[in-house]
């Protein structure tokens, strides 16, 4: 055994196996293991550090140690082999290192700079000049990135498919217009916390992004029905939409979604307090592919919405109804007795639904794939009800209850998490 794996270059494994096969074996190793192998012998050093083994690199676990020169050295080692790099959370990496990286790694397709707060428009300029094959770019929380960065990307990165500029709050409609004019292949846009974006920005997306599948507008509080309706008309392939915190949205937007985006699978509409049963009725009757819905704090909806979802949305897997204070046991009865409830539903959140009682727990027993129930501050859920369902439930999977007792004597008790099988 010692002879086979000796740290000598004359070890048997190096003699018997061709270099191509050894490289293939090394290609399955992670970064840490490759670096360890590089210290075994000169032959293994060459194999471990071969650029073909470094096509995908994720440095998140080393974020506190990664300085600019590390990125530069990696880029020189990997060169054109590198296709995917994550520098998420690497706070010390700045524009100079990224310029060297862009010059050396011109085949990069997926780049994650989430939280790299030293990165500015200059990095986007470098990517535009040297990385024309870039398809996925994450600039989340790169707070100094401005409209100029988007203009540069549009000029050199025409194959861009996914862009995340969440919390880049300097971005306005002018930057977004420049971006979509040059990057017509965009299929996913994440714009969370871009608080300056308005309806005009969405109209630019409507006009230039017909292939859009995912759009996240969380906390873009200037958005109204006018902008969202235009998105629905121009982006009929939309599957994932987040409008949580867009407090001006009404049923007009839900109607437009239902009539134009029948393939919708995920809708997050938390804190959209103007939405009612009427809008969700149109949505449910037209969007039969819905799988996940977050309706947290949609305070106007009633059991009627659950009736429509139970009838028309057989693929529903996760539903958040927290703070929907008009939901009752009867609505849960309709949901749990439907095909989606019995066969698909995995997660249901009912936090702070004051009309929900132990009867809801009895109804949910028919949801055979349920994995998590959230019942924080449901004052009419009792320990007796929890115990009864624990003892009599026929669930075959582990079900997590997140529950805080409702009895007056327990008001000061911390929220408890109970696991039942």
How would you describe what is shown here?
The chain has 421 residues and is α/β, with parallel strands linked by helices. Helices cover 38% and strands 12% of the residues. The chain has 18 helices and 15 strands. The protein has a 15-stranded mixed sheet with strand order 1-2-3-4-5-6-7-8-9-10-11-12-13-14-15, with no helix packed on it. The longest helix has 11 residues. The chain is globular. 42% of the residues are buried. The N terminus and C terminus are likely disordered.
Give a quick precis of the structure.
This protein is α/β, with parallel strands linked by helices and 421 residues long. It has 18 helices and 15 strands. Helix 7 (121-130) runs parallel beside helix 8 (147-156), helix 13 (277-286) packs parallel to helix 14 and helix 14 packs parallel to helix 15.
């Amino acid at each position: 055994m010692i002879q086979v794996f000796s740290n000598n270059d004359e070890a048997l494994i190096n003699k018997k196996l061709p270099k191509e096969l050894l490289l293939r074996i090394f290609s399955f190793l992670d970064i840490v293991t490759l670096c360890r192998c590089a210290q075994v012998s000169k032959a293994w050093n060459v194999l471990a550090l071969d650029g073909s083994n470094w096509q995908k690199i994720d440095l998140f676990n080393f974020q506190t140690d990664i300085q600019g020169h590390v990125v530069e050295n990696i880029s020189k080692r990997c060169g054109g082999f590198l296709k995917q790099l994550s520098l998420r959370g690497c706070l010390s990496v700045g524009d100079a290192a990224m310029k060297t990286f862009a010059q050396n790694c011109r085949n990069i397709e997926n780049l994650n700079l989430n939280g790299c707060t030293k990165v500015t428009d200059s990095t986007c300029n470098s990517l535009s000049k040297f990385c024309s094959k870039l398809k996925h770019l994450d600039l989340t929380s790169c707070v100094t990135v401005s409209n100029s960065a988007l203009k540069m990307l549009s000029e050199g990165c025409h194959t861009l498919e996914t862009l995340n500029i969440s919390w880049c709050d300097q971005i306005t409609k002018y930057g977004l217009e420049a971006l979509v004019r040059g990057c017509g292949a965009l299929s996913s846009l994440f714009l969370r916390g871009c608080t300056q974006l308005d309806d005009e920005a969405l109209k630019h997306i409507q006009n230039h992004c017909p292939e859009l599948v995912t759009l996240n507008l969380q906390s873009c509080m200037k958005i109204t029905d006018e902008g969202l309706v235009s998105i629905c008309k121009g982006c009929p392939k939309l599957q994932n939409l987040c409008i949580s915190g867009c407090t001006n949205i009404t049923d007009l937007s839900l109607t437009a979604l239902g009539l134009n985006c029948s393939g919708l699978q995920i809708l997050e509409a938390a804190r959209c307090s103007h939405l009612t049963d009427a809008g969700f009725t149109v949505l449910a009757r037209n969007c039969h592919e819905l799988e996940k819905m977050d309706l947290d704090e949609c305070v106007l909806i009633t059991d009627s919405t659950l009736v429509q979802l139970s009838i028309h949305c057989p693929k529903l897997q996760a539903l958040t109804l927290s703070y929907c204070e008009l939901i009752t046991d009867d609505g849960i009865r309709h949901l749990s007795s439907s095909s989606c409830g019995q066969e698909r539903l995995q997660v249901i959140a009912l936090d702070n639904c004051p009309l929900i009682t132990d009867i809801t727990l009895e109804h949910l027993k028919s949801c055979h794939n349920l994995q998590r129930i959230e019942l924080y501050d449901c004052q009419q859920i009792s320990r007796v009800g929890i115990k009864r369902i624990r003892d009599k439930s026929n669930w075959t999977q582990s079900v997590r209850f997140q529950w805080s007792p409702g009895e007056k004597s327990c008001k000061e008790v911390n929220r408890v998490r109970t696991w039942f099988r």
